[in-house]
Amino acid sequence: MTYSTYEINTPSPYLVLSKNDKIPVVLTVGESNSNDKTGIETDVKILTAHKCQTETLITKLGSDTTDDFFVPKGFMESKLSTINEIDALKTGTLTKDSIDLLNKKVHSLASSSVPIIISADELDNETFLLAFKQITPASTLIVCSSSKAKQLLNIQKDMKTEEDAFEIANQLANETSAPNVLMTDCLENDKGSIDVFYCVADQKFVVSNGQTFAAGVDSMISAAVAANLANGFTMNESVYGAIEYTQSAIATTVTTSDDKIPNYMYAIEIPMKKMVQDECFTAHELVSVPQPLKSGPICENFFDYLIKHPLVKPYWDTYVNHEFVNQIANGTLPLKKFQFYVEQDYSYLVDYGRVHCVAGSKAPDLEDMEQELVIVGRIRVEMGQRRKEIEGGVRCQRRRVLQNHQERTSLKQLLPLFQRRCQER
After folding, report:
1. In this predicted model, what pLDDT tens digit does every residue of 201-243 receive, in sequence order?
2. What is the pLDDT of residue 406?
3. Fold equal for 13-261 and 322-424
């Protein structure tokens, strides 16, 4: 009989440093069902992906095969009384009883500046009328598809322009007294469709282009917005992040035994993979770590392999044989483009200098710091030369080019600038 002994790795120092960090808590109120884009189950996945702790209040149990079961008011009230401090609230499918219970809760939360996100797509006409009288005035944001907004507001007119979308978003804000409205899938375009975010206080509309969403996706966006707000992001940041997260989750859709569902966890790391990559990991007898290939297609020269790779070669050839360089050589580059290049290069040098300043501050010893200072000094010299080219050389060359335009439109007069630069290098 054999046995082996191994050490369990202790948590890494940077992980232990965050042990007292507060995890945001989001309360989600809605239906528990088998739908992959709405319901409490989906909210839990989305909030977990955003590193939020989830509190749940189930209003009803939905099923595709049996009648819905509405959770008794007394049970919901008991559950709600146990939930104290939260950082955000997201509502989905509501019932009359749940609206009555939430009425007092949302107003106390609003007075404490806790964001309240309402997914209007999960409300029917009856609950919507109750909600906008009792809950929506205390809300932070209402998320609604354009088709649902038209249905709830009893609008028959087709939405043909952005102005039509703005009008409906404004009307939804007026009816609900909500300070912010996000209306999705407003108008089709070549990229998919546009979403409209309306901030009542600023009287400002923000239009974003993205993919067209399927029915029920507004609940996903609502949960993601709530998570972002709970994590301390601004409203504008939260809305943008929620839309991009939802698009990415749909783009990485996974196949299950029954259906295809969005990949809500696409950004979550698997702890085991991180463990085996740790240099201190010793339990190799228990967990096999992938070994690098002993031989492969790279052979001897990795650089040659890379630039000749079929996925890289076209881009590499375009990069090294750039048309800009060809036009400089034969004197056909428009003067304004050359001026733009010089000005852009100056801005690049500013950022390049900042990078080396940061590198110097991180340098392990004085010698490395001195090398970075030398580089920054050279960058400063080049910036001075660029400024002279912009202020003097380019303007003079422009006058000469304009004077000689009748005889020959050429930028060969600019070559001395390049020759001088090469000599200085």
Report:
1. 889 999 888 776 666 688 899 999 999 999 999 999 999 999 9
2. 32
3. no
The topology under which CATH files domain 322-424 is Heme Oxygenase; Chain A (1.20.910)
Q: How much is the pLDDT for 411?
A: 36
> Tens digits of per-residue pLDDT, 175-189?
889 999 999 888 887
What is the reported pLDDT for 129? 79
Task: List the chain domain ranges.
Answer: 13-261, 322-424
CATH topology of domain 13-261: UDP-N-acetylmuramoyl-L-alanine:D-glutamate ligase (3.40.1190)
The average pLDDT across 301-308 equals: 85
- 21 backbone dihedrals φ, ψ, rounded to 5°: -65, 140
Backbone angles phi, psi at 261, to 5 degrees: -130, 150
How far, in Å, CA of 371 to CA of 377, rounded?
10
Please report, for residues 89, 277, 280, 283, 287, the alpha-carbon distance to residue 5 in angstroms, rounded to integers and kept in the order given: 48, 20, 15, 9, 13
How far apart, in whole angstroms, are the C-alpha atoms of residue 44 and residue 50?
A: 10
Flag whether the pTM goes above 0.70: no
Q: Closest Cα partner for 262 from 49, 8, 12?
A: 49
The one-letter amino acid at 242: A
